[in-house]
Amino acid sequence: MSRDKLRALEELQKVDLQIRDLAQQAEKHPARLKQIETERNQARVALDAQRGRLADNERARRQNEQLLQLEKDKVRKWESRLSELKTPREYAALARELDIAKKTNQTAEEEIRRLSGEYEELKKGIADLEQALGEKEAVVQSEGKQIQDVLSGLQGQVQVLEKERDAVAASVDRSMLSRYERIRKQRGGLAVVPVVGMTCKGCQRNIPPQMANNLRTGNELLTCPNCHRFIYPAEAEAAAAPA
Ligand SMILES: [Zn+2]
User: Fold this and answer.
1) Residue 175 C-alpha to ligand 1 middle, in angstroms?
2) Ligand 1 centre and the CA of 205: distance in Å?
3) Is this prediction's pTM over 0.70?
4) Which residues, other chains included, contact 84 with Cβ-Cβ below 8 Å and sequence gap of 6+?
5) pLDDT in tens, 112-145
6) What is the Å distance from ligand 1's center to 164 Cα?
7) Cα of 158 to ligand 1 centre, how many Å?
8) How far is the CA of 226 from the centre of ligand 1 (A)?
9) 26-159: what CATH class?
10) Domain ranges, ordered by start, for the chain
11) What confidence tens digit (pLDDT) does each residue in 21-32 have?
């Protein structure tokens, strides 16, 4: 008699565990969505940073080119004036200035060359980062839709199971049902558990030997003295399994 009551409760627990499983699956999806969106945002930040470096590079090159232009004009002007100079001292002074200006030009030319090389690298980096961002955006697009589809699928399954649950719950003894609900909430979902040998599979602790004997005769509705879950002998489950 008590075995039948317990069996109805076990049925209910099966449905409840399925519902819980679906809810847990559903919970994972928003996290995944957030993850792929974060990856997309990171790709965007990396691309923006690289574009900033490219703009810096272009600015530095323009500045060096302007500097070079000015210095070249100066050199040309000074060189044309060299022949007009009257004293060796004036000549030597201007020649020294020219030397310095030419070195400045050389440095600017080297810097422009270096910046051009860097520019090519940065351009290539931008192309790679644009591609990476495109891929991440595609993932958000396609997977985001898939996630929505999966979620609505899960919702549909939960609705079906909840109807089933109502039907099963109707066949469960009222006072047992409220005890079941209470234990289920306190014990993370499992309220009906088998006892294997003398071990309660809910809490993994042994029940007293006398209780184990009573359990096997199957006339009493028993709960584990430690975790207070409803218990039944594992052999009963094994016997009922083929049906
Ligand atoms: Zn227990």
Assistant:
1) 20
2) 6
3) no
4) none
5) 999 999 999 999 999 999 999 999 999 999 999 9
6) 28
7) 29
8) 5
9) mainly alpha
10) 26-159, 174-240
11) 999 989 888 888
